Amino acid sequence: EPEVTQTPSHQVTQMGQEVILRCVPISNHLYFYWYRQILGQKVEFLVSFYNNEISEKSEIFDDQFSVERPDGSNFTLKIRSTKLEDSAMYFCASSVDSDTGELFFGEGSRLTVL
Amino acid sequence: GENVEQHPSTLSVQEGDSAVIKCTYSDSASNYFPWYKQELGKGPQLIIDIRSNVGEKKDQRIAVTLNKTAKHFSLHITETQPEDSAVYFCAASKHDYKLSFGAGTTVTVRA
């Protein structure tokens, strides 16, 4: 069964460093998303991406964050100048379309900022 | 924005018994209500969803009910099995992709 894959599964970084989380969405999917879950809190929407541009973003997704689809298979989330409060599980998801499609989630990348 | 509340936070049931998880939402414009199951070390996986033009939907041992007037929806798992043990999340959305999640329910099925 096709699946969304994420790397790394766990990354530890120092405050102020830049982090790139990588995702390989399901191959025929056109819509890509990032969600995050801070420990003990709800899963939160960060951003949606379609046709090589951001289609919607939450208020969490400020200038510190950026997304990119650098090639035909990868979808990345870059976090610049990481803060302690960026520590969370980051989930990538993809769907065939945005109106009726199921979101398929990856297993998540745990980011720990020290 | 949308606020989804989920209860209970933990649920322990005897194998074979039923489990019920309840969620309420705040935005009356929400029209899509999926349920996700998350097993340890894995991402959330959709198990069933319901749209606002339907009051109930069933898939084998899993059913979801929706009451739009009261703005609440529920997940029912019958004849629970040990493999049903997981964290279950409800969510609500006006757009299928921008989900507002509940806080999750940890379900433990006792053998």
How far the N terminus sits from the C terminus of chain A, by CA atoms, comes to: 37 Å
CA(first)-CA(last) distance of chain B: 41 Å
SSE pattern of chain B: EEEEEEEEEEE
Radius of gyration of chain B: 13 Å
Structural class of chain A: mainly beta
Description of the structure:
- The complex is a heterodimer of chains A (114) and B (111).
- Chain A is mainly beta and 114 residues long.
- Helix content of chain A is 0%, strand content 50%.
- In chain A, strands 2, 4, 5, 6, 9, 10 and 11 form a seven-stranded mixed beta sheet that branches. Chain A has a four-stranded antiparallel beta sheet with strand order 1-3-8-7, with no helix packed on it.
- The model of chain A has no long low-confidence stretch (mean pLDDT 93).
- By secondary structure, chain B is mostly beta strands.
- Chain B is built from no helices and eleven strands.
- Chain B has strands spanning 4-7, 10-14, 19-25, 32-38, 45-51, 56-59, 62-67, 72-77, 86-92, 100-101, 105-110.
- In chain B, the strands form two sheets. In chain B, strands 2, 4, 5, 9, 10 and 11 form a six-stranded mixed beta sheet that branches.
- Chain B is globular and about 40 Å long.
- The interface between A and B is medium-sized, with 25 and 21 residues.
Annotate the secondary structure layout:
The complex is a heterodimer of chains A (114) and B (111).
Chain A: E1 5-7, E2 10-13, E3 19-24, E4 31-37, E5 43-50, E6 53-57, E7 65-68, E8 75-79, E9 88-95, E10 104-105, E11 109-113
Chain B: E1 4-7, E2 10-14, E3 19-25, E4 32-38, E5 45-51, E6 56-59, E7 62-67, E8 72-77, E9 86-92, E10 100-101, E11 105-110
Summarize the structure.
With 114 residues, chain A is an all-beta fold.
